[in-house]
Specification:
Layout: H1 2-18, E1 24-30, H2 49-56, E2 58-65, E3 68-69, H3 75-84, H4 88-91, H5 101-107, E4 111-118, H6 123-128, E5 131-137, E6 146-148, E7 161-163, H7 166-179, E8 187-192, H8 204-207, H9 245-275, E9 282-288, H10 307-310, E10 311-318, E11 325-327, E12 331-332, H11 336-344, H12 358-361, E13 372-376, E14 380-384, E15 388-393, E16 398-403, H13 421-438, H14 469-475
Parallel strand pairs: 1-8, 1-9, 2-11, 2-12, 3-13, 4-5, 4-8
Antiparallel strand pairs: 2-10, 6-7, 9-10, 13-14, 14-15, 15-16
Helix pairs in contact: 7-9
């Protein structure tokens, strides 16, 4: 009678061991995706059924932000902040010698893998990931000819081979990794897509799914003043001045088509996770490195502090994440590092600047901060709370104040009206406090003041090297 009992005990113990007590992490990262370009964030035109379902299955953060950037390629500092748990004034866009959360989880028994874009020093890949395949080392590429390399055992990379379409290759690489995983070994799978970053050159099948889409509510032909920084940054050269409604609608349609392609690629990854039976023990995260103007305020890029550029999507789903939940708590992407540590019972480094979001996720607390600070190079600083947002432009000695409750698209500047002088003063004080908190030493008024006039007529617009022929012919013809 004892033998069957012992057999059942052994079988029970083996089943317990087969399921790792440590949750896996599947991190899906988009490039240049503004938060309101997803169906689950209220966009009725873009088709994102897989991400919408992921949001329904988990927790959506409606007020996720990045801190900003120290140069025009905002994605680089954004990714450094995500990986390090610190603001860009501490890490800039460099990760060599910095502890990242994949590195920490690797040290705690996780198998760590990545595919996709890496814009933070190649040597940092090998320190964080045990395996990396089809990696694009750099900021951007033609999606049809994306240079991809594999990590070698010595920490260097193979010679790049051009492959396309980028989203399909990165998704398939992640699927191949997931297909080899077993339930008793915890893993990190980091998939850093290059979509929907320009070139805005979607596959024709996805473009056919869209008619003409409407302009953003805050569309402008030209931004009304000079930031005091380079207004000819590469992103802004992708359409002529003044911006026309036809060109912006066309680019938005292409942008949405690329997002739909991205959504389908992510759907295939999630299907493989479920097929392997790993979905029950995996925390799934979807986010993006920064937003994008796409015609809002007369801009195309992310080199500004308006909501469309600093606010990003953030969705968590899977093991231990409540379903059908939305949070309007102010969060940064670099809050994910300490959050992972808490959720996985791993000791977090003491010097992290991010805050643990697990209390918000579990409904134990409403927020971890009451204001959001953002910054771009030396030229822009901003602070916002639930209602008010102040943007300061030190180089041109100019201030904007928006009442986001009545003016969510940041169109009506109240800063110069006498009745708002007290509000401006108070928010400037809050801005200075946040500068000190994050190690920002730039003055809020420059020693030499530049003109606020934006003379777009003098701009010599030239394409970059990554734009494919059809984009050159469509948007750069004389």
């Amino acid at each position: 009678m004892q033998k069957p009992f012992l057999f059942l005990c052994l079988l029970f113990c083996q089943n317990l061991y087969a399921q790792s007590p440590k949750p896996n992490i599947l991190f899906l990262f988009a490039d240049d995706l503004r938060a309101d370009a997803l169906g689950c964030y209220g966009n009725p035109y873009v088709q994102t059924p897989n991400l919408d379902q992921l949001a329904r299955n988990g927790t959506l953060f409606s007020e996720a932000h990045i801190l900003g950037g120290n140069h025009g390629a905002v994605c680089a500092p954004s990714r450094a902040m995500l990986m390090s748990g610190k603001g860009f004034f501490r890490v800039l866009d460099k990760l060599n010698g910095v502890t990242t959360w994949p590195m920490l989880l690797r040290q705690n028994g996780y198998s760590t893998f990545m595919t996709g874009k890496w814009h933070n020093e190649p040597a940092a890949v090998g320190a964080s990931f045990m395996e990396a395949k089809n990696v694009m080392l750099g900021g951007m590429a033609d999606h049809y000819q994306t240079p991809m390399s594999d990590l070698k055992p010595d920490g260097t990379f193979t010679e790049p081979i051009k492959k396309g379409f980028s989203a399909d290759h990165f998704a398939e690489t992640a699927i191949q990794f997931l297909d080899k995983q077993m339930a008793n070994k915890p893993f990190v799978t980091y998939v850093a897509f290059t979509a929907p970053h320009d070139p805005r050159s979607p596959l024709p099948d996805y473009l056919k799914r869209y008619g003409t889409v409407p302009l953003p509510p805050n569309f402008m032909p030209v931004h009304p003043f000079n930031f005091g920084s380079d207004m000819t940054v590469r992103d802004e050269m992708l359409a002529g001045y003044p911006r026309t409604t036809d060109v912006i609608k066309s680019q938005l349609t292409e942008y949405y088509a690329m997002i739909t392609h991205l959504d389908e690629a992510i759907g295939k990854i999630l299907a493989k996770l479920k097929e392997k039976g790993l979905d029950k023990n995996t925390i799934i995260v979807f986010a993006a490195d920064n937003g994008l103007a796409m015609g809002s305020h007369g801009l195309l890029g992310k080199q500004n502090l308006y909501e469309h550029s600093m606010r990003v999507p953030l969705i968590l789903s899977g093991k231990g994440i409540p379903q059908h939940q939305k949070s309007d708590a102010f969060v940064y992407l670099f809050d994910l590092f300490p959050t992972f540590c808490k959720m996985l019972n791993v000791t977090a480094p003491k010097d992290l600047e991010g805050k643990d979001l697990s209390g918000i996720i579990q409904g134990e607390m409403p927020s971890v901060r009451e204001q959001v600070f953002t910054a771009y190079t030396f030229s822009q600083r901003a602070i916002r709370d639930r209602r008010w947002k102040l943007i300061r432009y030190p180089k041109v000695d100019f201030t904007q104040l928006f009442d986001l409750q009545t003016d969510p698209y940041e169109l009506n500047n109240l800063a110069q009206k006498p009745e708002y002088a007290t509000k401006v003063k108070k928010m400037m004080e809050d801005l200075k406090k946040h500068q000190q908190l994050y190690g920002d030493t730039f003055p809020l008024t420059a020693s030499e003041i530049s003109s606020q006039v934006f003379d777009y007529k003098s701009i010599d617009r030239k394409p970059d090297q990554w734009q494919p022929k059809e984009i050159l012919e469509k948007y750069f013809k004389d």
